[in-house]
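Final report, closing paragraph on structural work. Over the funding period we assembled a curated collection of sequence-structure pairs, and we close with a single example.
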Amino acid sequence: MLDFIISVYNQSILKYELSKMLEKASELSEDQKYSQALKYYENILQIDPVNIIAIIDYGVTLQNLARFKHALEKYNVALTIQPKNISALINKGTVLHTMGKYSEAIEMGNIKLAIKYFKKALSIDSDYELAQISFSTAKKS
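Its predicted structure, as stored:
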């Protein structure tokens, strides 16, 4: 019984430490200290390789550094773990779009739903170029 209690206690400490590391990585990213943030994400993922938040935030940080291919790899890892993770799907679509891979970005989602959201974005801002291009590409698919 004592071993079980110690195990639970250690897991609690580890979760707390990981959350603090994740918080620090996030703060560094917000301060545009992306290289430092990456080190925190790497450390977190060495301890907890399936930490979905760390994986996605790592991808976002890579994307902020214009390392799109590597960001895409992280989003794919996240989607392997949680195939319907909205944040991973949105970020993957964004990076594919940034890379000019419009068809791939649209293919990963529901075309009708994509068109609906592009229309909504255009109703808010008819000059929104990203939405115009995406909407036009989605309609052709």
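Residues 2-30 form the longest helix (29 residues). The chain has a mean pLDDT of 79. We thank the funder for supporting this effort.
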